[in-house]
Known about the structure:
Low-confidence stretches: none
Strand content: under 5%
Organism: Holdemanella biformis DSM 3989
Mean pLDDT: 92
Number of helices: 3
Structural class: mainly alpha
Oligomer: single chain
Helix content: over 70%
Shape: globular
Protein name: Transposase
Amino acid sequence: IEQGSENNRKEMYQTMVDKGFSISSIASIFSVSEESIERLLMKA
């Protein structure tokens, strides 16, 4: 289950990046660290 939610999060972050959101703005919207987003996206 944990893996599934991580994949969903990764897709959501990737979609936002594709739409022009910066990593820092995504981090502030979801109250997560920029590093955690970058780590997720690097696994792609």
